[in-house]
Write a structure and sequence with these properties.
Elements lengths: L3 E4 L10 H18 L3 E4 L14 H11 L4 E4 L9 H14 L4 E5 L5 H7 L6 H17 L3 E4 L4 E5 L13 E5 L3 H9 L3 E4 L6 H17 L9 E9 L3 H22 L17 H7 L2 H6 L3 E4 L1 H15 L3 E5 L7 H15 L11
Parallel strand pairs: 1-2, 1-11, 2-3, 3-4, 4-7, 7-8, 8-9, 9-10, 9-11
Antiparallel strand pairs: 5-6
Helix pairs in contact: 1-2, 1-12, 2-3, 3-5, 6-7, 11-12
């Protein structure tokens, strides 16, 4: 079983500076590479303390690449709707070369109305822009020369430079939260998925993941070759009391900045985001206790966390937990304690972590 780190900045500047956050993230990534963690992932968001410190995941991952030798680098995710896909294809290919073929390219649709408003993109165009962007990027990676006549982009005889190291292209991941269509679309095309259980519930997540696995098989792809990453907050300590107290303090800050970022959904509707208008209410009602009780976070002593990992594996099958360990202003000592305790006591219980199959 594989285990990765997920860097999703979610803090106030009175918790730490942006420079301090990235310095800690790079130190954690370097140590994670030594300890046998499989991947490092980071996000693209804008304008809010929820993710907004990371408008370009490629920049952070390039710095990680320079400090590591083995760990995979995942854009989790880049947003085709907010970027020219030709430029994005070249930048991602450059990262694949800098890392000598360690890039996993994750794409998302975005979901915060403020971001769409500022970039002048209609939320109703979210899915077609997303699908067209990925189509352009994968073709530019795999084909020598590409001409394209799409709804949003038209160009003739383009040869992408640089070419990616991985052939025909880096592995593709799709961020999928609560829309069944996203899970099915990814499965049919043979793409891996990144899920966010705390934004849903375990019963729905089980159904959505099964829909994905069914679509993967129906698309003619090798059963069992599909990969799933599950984004989970993780806080490990030597005692139950210390873990619970540390987690609650930090995840409350995370929920606070998340709720602030989704306020723009209060009077917003989009056919592309069915049910998302209820997101404000759901996030506002989220608590640390609900996350722990709902098995959407890994919190406790190493033995308790082992049981929680087993629960999630029984729920959705084989997957890779992608763990946030420095969320909500978590301090350096706490983040490294989680990293070290998890590697020493939890990872050995689940076998080798080096493979990608």
């Amino acid at each position: 079983m594989r285990f990765g780190l997920n860097f999703f900045p979610s803090f106030r500047l009175d918790d730490m500076s942006t420079a301090e956050y990235f310095s800690l993230g790079l130190s954690l990534s370097e140590r994670a590479d030594e300890l046998g963690y499989t991947s490092v992932k980071t996000v693209e968001h804008y304008f809010h303390d929820y993710g907004g410190h990371s408008p370009n995941p490629i920049v952070f991952l390039s710095a990680v690449a320079a400090r590591t030798r083995r760990i995979r680098l995942i854009t989790g995710a880049v947003i085709p709707a907010f970027n020219n896909p030709i430029k994005l294809a070249g930048e991602l290919a450059m990262l694949d070369n800098i890392s000598n073929g360690r890039l996993d390219a994750g794409f998302g649709r975005a979901f915060i109305p403020k971001e769409f408003d500022v970039f002048g993109v209609s939320m109703d165009e979210s899915r077609p822009r997303f699908e067209e962007g990925i189509d352009i990027i994968t073709r530019l990676w795999a084909e020598e020369r590409v001409s394209y006549d799409g709804k949003f982009h038209k160009f003739q005889d383009v040869r992408l430079m640089p070419r990616p190291v991985q052939k025909p292209h880096p592995p593709i991941w799709i961020a999928a939260v609560a829309t069944r269509d996203s899970f099915v679309w990814a499965g049919r095309r043979g793409y891996h998925i990144m899920i966010v259980p705390f934004a849903s519930n375990v019963d729905l997540i089980r159904q959505l993941v099964q829909s994905y696995r069914d679509a993967w098989r129906d698309g003619g792809h090798l059963p069992g070759a599909e990969q799933i990453q599950s984004s989970l907050h993780c806080y490990v300590a030597e005692t139950h009391k210390e873990a619970i107290e540390g987690f609650k303090r930090s995840v409350e800050r995370y929920i606070e900045v998340f709720a602030e970022a989704v306020q723009s959904w209060s009077n917003k509707q989009s056919s592309q985001y069915a049910g998302y208008s209820k997101l404000v209410e759901a996030i506002t009602a989220l608590t640390a206790d609900k996350m722990i009780d709902g098995h959407t976070a890994l919190v406790g002593t190493p033995d308790e966390v082992i049981e929680q990992v087993e629960f999630n594996r029984d729920l959705i099958g084989e997957h890779e937990p992608s763990m946030q360990i420095n969320f909500g202003g978590v301090k350096e000592r706490e983040a490294f304690r989680t990293l070290e305790l998890f590697a020493a006591h939890v990872m050995p219980r689940f076998g080798p972590t080096g493979g990608r199959g």
